[in-house]
Amino acid sequence: GAGVSQSPRYKVAKRGQDVALRCDPISGHVSLFWYQQALGQGPEFLTYFQNEAQLDKSGLPSDRFFAERPEGSVSTLKIQRTQQEDSAVYLCASSLDRAWDQPQHFGDGTRLSIL
Amino acid sequence: QKEVEQDPGPLSVPEGAIVSLNCTYSNSAFQYFMWYRQYSRKGPELLMYTYSSGNKEDGRFTAQVDKSSKYISLFIRDSQPSDSATYLCATTRGAQKLVFGQGTRLTINP
After folding, report:
1. CA-to-CA distance for A46 and A90, rounded, in angstroms?
2. Residues of A (62-91) whose Cβ lies below 8 Å from B
3. Which of A40, A59, A103 lies nearest to residue B49, judging by beta carbons?
4. d(C-alpha A39, C-alpha A72), whole Å
5. Is B110 helix (H, G, I), strand (E, B) or coil?
6. pLDDT digits over A57-93, tens only?
7. A42, B69, B89, B90: which is deepest, by most CB within 10 A?
């Protein structure tokens, strides 16, 4: 499809395990964003890439969270030593470039549950 | 205090009613404003975006921004059951991270 694709759609892990979440942005989109959405809340910013450069990681809640986009297309969000408070929906968005009038297009997210 | 405040609802109205959804924000550095619609277990979908104060209309949807009072609104005319979703306001200082409100859960009853 032409939209942002995220996998897996659902992930269940035991506390302490590492997880990796994948995002395939829309082809040609330069900017890529990760957000975390807790139940009943709006998405909260985690990190931002322009091509392969991570320009803003101010929203990552701890050093257990790590994101990469090595070739400027697919991105992976990794969470090490997961905790129960990491349970949330992780949303990826991409946009054509940095201009404000280029909207961010969201994927359907990965729903992460930590037991 | 959150940078963007939005009443979470839930809000339930009959089909055909006019719906008014509102947000306030605290930082005058926010310059760009969006409304997203999110269906259950789906990602947010952009409905409207605007920069300036005033109204912007797109079909049954009207977005309104009042920068002097830091207040943004979304109006839905002739509401339909298919409009039932969570509506998220969002803002940004520039072209990077979005700051979202909590979202308002809306149900349109046939």
Report:
1. 9
2. 91
3. A103
4. 30
5. coil
6. 999 999 999 999 999 999 999 999 999 999 999 999 9
7. B89
